[in-house]
Amino acid sequence: MPQDVSSLLEISYYLAFLNYVLGSALLGSPIPFASVKRLGASMMKDSITGIVMVTGFGIILYIVRFIQNLLGADPNELIKWFNTFFLSISSKILFLKTLASISNPLLRSLIDPLISSAISLLTTSFISLFLLRILYILIFEKGGILLAIGVLLYNIPLGIFKRAGSLLMSFVIISMIALPAMPSFANYLFGNLVNTSNSNNQSLNNINTQIVYPLIIFKDYSGNNLSYVYTKFFFPEDPNKIIAAYPADREGVLDTRSLDAGLPADRRIGFRNELYGWAFYTDETLYFSRDCIYTQCVKIIKIPHILVSYMPYIFVHTPSHMLYYRYTIYINDDKGLISLDMTFETKDELMITAPATTNITKIIINNIETYPITIKWEWAGVEGYTYKISVDPGASFSNVHIDIYFLFKEPPKPNLEIIRYEPEDQVNIQLDQFLSDVIMTMILTTIFPAIYVSLITLGANSLSRILSGRH
Known about the structure:
By secondary structure, the protein is α+β, with helices and mostly antiparallel strands. The chain folds into 3 domains: 3-206 and 433-467; 211-305, Immunoglobulin-like; 308-408, Immunoglobulin-like. 47% of the residues lie in helices and 26% in strands. The protein has 12 helices and 20 strands. The strands form 5 sheets. Strands 3, 4, 7, 8 and 9 form a 5-stranded antiparallel beta sheet that branches. The protein has a 5-stranded antiparallel beta sheet with strand order 11-12-15-19-18, with no helix packed on it. α4 runs antiparallel to α5. The chain starts with a helix and ends with a helix.
């Protein structure tokens, strides 16, 4: 028996003995009042009851455990019941919040009231379950001490706190027997509804973790941000089926959250980039874990086919046989110069792409002005040109110096279509069934426990009346 409980019981024993002595004194006193005699007799009776409680404390706990076993009430099952519903409620709240964030604006205006009501119900259920968990801790981890405190209060002389002690002891005893049996009663009363309420966790888990909203930054091979990159996403097993397509902004940032445009979580995603009439392919794939649901993940994508850029005005394509390069960009008002020192393995081609608002005035290779082949393009409402020049190092691994002079003005913003990702099973969500499930969870975790604990309190009150001698 714990030291704290033993100390309390020892004090209770001496208080009961003191109560007996005082009761004997009152009963045998020459005071000619019947009420005094009755008080003395009552105190002696209470002291005997209190001594029996102290000496039989271990027997009381044994009887409680015996009744628990007889009813099949296992405290560990109650813990599992708590944990199951904590997980179920948390999953449902997460699902509802995710559903609210991924819905399109029209659908959101319709379902927001339902989602708010459901979240309120689930929050109430969570608080109710949390309070039940605290009650469990008090009864099963501190129950011995509480019971000993009840005995101590009962044995305080003159019966000042006898009623309080009786009520505390009764509540602890009834709770230790009845609380572990609560899951069994719930299963008996509601059948398979308890299991049904929690069986949707896996399916909800699959739904509410389908959408993530990452922040993607696009850069060229040199690390400069690329404006207006248009990215088409697909699953690697079917690259011809575009599941989503989003444009980056002028700073080269694709904030899918601000666009209300998500991507699938926990799946490999292939992608290809488009920019100013060119498509850039890669074998690289993206993967966003479920953690990105709670915290916006940041991904930097370098397009290795673009060597250097000053966007949104101009970019230079990476040659196939380049071994080494170094670059400098000079900007003066609306005039610009990209200066490149490059080493080639063999003869190669260099391409420079710019919108029509950028004018390539001069291209000089090794101090010799070069006249490129011009290719016109039109892309997403923007027109421009690609300038293709031939680079011949003359000998392998020779260094080539290239100067690209240009004048630039702000180009129009490309008119790019946003294709939002829509999970296939997201369309099939049955909100009515889900809300019914929420209501059932509310019943099982709030209404039913409230009635159950009320019955425990009534039982404790009846037992306390017996212990305190009030019939």
